[in-house]
């Protein structure tokens, strides 16, 4: 058998199990990875939690060739699984979820190989697990199945996570301060203490109140990052053109690193749909956007976990109204308590210039690429940042927690594709920054230049495309040895 035949045989037998952390911002990029691995000819199984598969996702909303399995997460079905319950979800996944994952992986990896007439997939030969779940790496390797880690934050943020022990040693905790930090290699003179990753924040106007000690949570986050070195390789949803220096700093800590993003830019919009919501009603978004002038709309979406006080919502809405532009505001039902009065007031003031919806359609990218959208006011989540970057849309970042403060700093200080509004929720600031993002030719030029480069990165011969080919070869090699 020649080398080409051996490679084809390995690819035919390679079967990757993908296991994301069960939150939307982690599931979506893992689904994009599933799609590109399927396109590369690999067998792929996607592991949901039972709760997500029942309540949030359904087979028609996945690539048709994607095999779905699920395990319990150990929480009651009515548990909110929102930002306030993330620690409970983490603990439950480490116990009940880990046991169920072990049992499933033992079965999937030891199954007999199908004959040529059988439609069943071959046994699982490799897993790609979300790097925030160290147990998933450990369990797979104990069973004898090679494990790769996939991290869904930016490379710069992951480097900051790796640096948490050093940051704490230097007393450089994340607080609203402009004091520069020394504990993140390569980012001296850039990151301030206010730019460091954070745990779930308390109310911003209550900084003097007694707070829970964030150090244990930060150390847990750092441990998950460090544990990725126990995997066979680290996969990052980023491009070298955006984060080359951080990738280079991370590489010595890992066995291998693959920068294959932005993954969503490789997936055709009609190939994969990510979110199930009733009858896929778009709440009139497209029709409303079609009726607006070019680059006249501010798109506001603060992600799937951000929560606001009614006072903060009032500042956002009044600032948007004062800016004078039309705005499309995605306001989740669980985002704000007692928001109806201030919402009604602001929408009445804006009139036809405002559309407030609970959700945007599955194909969220059509909103950002719509000719009417002029800027994106968002939370600094990495998925949202990549979506805006690929479409060349200027952004205003109001980070909430986790890696978002790091991203917002790079948006304003390094990439210059937008503005950083962290630690401030004031209508005058919202008004000023929205106007600047909508009107600045320098910001728009930087955003469009980044978009052009990212499209080159994911095209044939680009850096991310080449890294993806290398990743597929790496998985085939691991699978061949495992067989």
Write the layout of secondary structure elements.
Blueprint: H1 3-13, E1 15-19, H2 24-39, E2 43-49, H3 50-55, E3 67-71, H4 86-110, E4 126-130, H5 134-143, E5 147-151, H6 155-162, H7 164-169, H8 215-227, E6 234-236, H9 240-250, E7 257-259, H10 285-290, E8 297-301, H11 310-323, E9 326-330, H12 340-350, E10 354-357, H13 365-369, E11 373-378, H14 382-391, E12 395-397, H15 404-415, E13 418-420, H16 427-439, H17 441-458, H18 463-482
Parallel strand pairs: 1-2, 1-4, 2-3, 4-5, 5-6, 6-7, 8-9, 8-11, 9-10, 11-12, 12-13
Structure overview:
The structure is a single chain. This protein is 45% helix and 12% strand. It is an alpha/beta fold. The protein folds into 2 domains: 3-156 and 218-273 and 460-482, Glycogen Phosphorylase B (Rossmann fold); 285-455, Rossmann fold. It has a 7-stranded parallel sheet, with helices on both faces. Strands 10-9-8-11-12-13 form a 6-stranded parallel sheet, sandwiched between helices. It starts with a helix and ends with a helix. Residues 202-210 and 269-279 have low confidence and may be disordered.
């Amino acid at each position: 058998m020649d080398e080409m035949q051996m490679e084809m045989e390995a690819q035919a037998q390679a079967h990757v199990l993908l296991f994301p952390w069960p939150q939307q911002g982690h599931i979506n990029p893992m689904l994009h990875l599933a799609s590109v691995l399927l396109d590369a000819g690999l067998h792929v199984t996607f592991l949901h939690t039972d709760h997500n598969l029942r309540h949030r996702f359904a087979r028609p909303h996945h690539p048709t060739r994607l095999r779905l399995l699920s395990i319990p997460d150990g929480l009651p079905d009515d548990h909110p699984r929102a930002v306030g319950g993330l620690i409970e979800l983490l603990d439950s996944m480490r116990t009940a979820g880990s046991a169920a994952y072990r049992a499933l992986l033992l079965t999937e990896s030891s199954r007999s190989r199908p004959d040529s007439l059988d439609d069943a997939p071959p046994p699982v030969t490799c897993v790609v697990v979300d790097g925030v779940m160290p147990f998933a790496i450990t369990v797979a390797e104990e069973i004898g199945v090679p494990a790769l880690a996939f991290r869904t934050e930016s490379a710069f943020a992951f480097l900051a996570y790796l640096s948490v022990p050093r940051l704490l040693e230097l007393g450089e905790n994340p607080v609203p301060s402009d004091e520069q930090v020394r504990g993140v290699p390569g980012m001296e003179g850039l990151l301030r203490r206010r730019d460091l990753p954070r745990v779930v924040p308390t109310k911003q106007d209550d900084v003097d109140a007694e707070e829970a000690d964030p150090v244990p949570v930060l150390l847990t986050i750092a441990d998950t990052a460090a544990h990725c070195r126990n995997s066979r390789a680290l996969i990052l949803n980023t491009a070298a053109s955006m984060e080359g220096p951080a990738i280079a700093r991370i590489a010595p800590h890992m066995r291998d690193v693959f920068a294959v993003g932005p993954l969503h830019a490789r997936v055709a919009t009609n190939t994969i749909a990510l979110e199930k919501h009733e009858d896929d009603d778009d709440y009139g978004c497209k029709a409303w956007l079609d009726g607006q002038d070019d680059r006249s709309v501010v798109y506001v979406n603060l992600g799937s976990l951000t929560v606001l006080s009614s006072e903060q919502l009032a500042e956002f809405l009044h600032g948007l109204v004062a800016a004078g532009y039309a705005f499309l505001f995605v306001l989740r039902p669980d985002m704000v308590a007692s928001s109806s009065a201030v919402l009604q007031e602001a929408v009445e003031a804006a009139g036809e210039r405002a559309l407030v919806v609970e959700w945007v359609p599955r194909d969220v990218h059509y909103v950002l690429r719509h000719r009417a959208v002029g800027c994106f006011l968002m939370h600094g989540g990495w998925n949202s940042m990549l979506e805006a970057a690929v479409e060349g849309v200027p952004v205003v970042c109001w980070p909430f927690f986790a890696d978002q403060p790091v991203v917002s700093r790079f948006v304003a200080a390094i990439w210059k594709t937008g503005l950083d509004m962290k630690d401030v929720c004031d209508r005058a600031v919202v008004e000023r920054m929205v106007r600047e993002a909508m009107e600045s030719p320098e910001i728009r030029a930087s955003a469009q230049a980044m978009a052009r480069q990212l499209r080159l990165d994911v095209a044939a011969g680009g850096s991310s495309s080449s890294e993806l080919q290398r990743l597929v070869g790496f998985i085939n090699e691991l699978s061949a040895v495992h067989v």
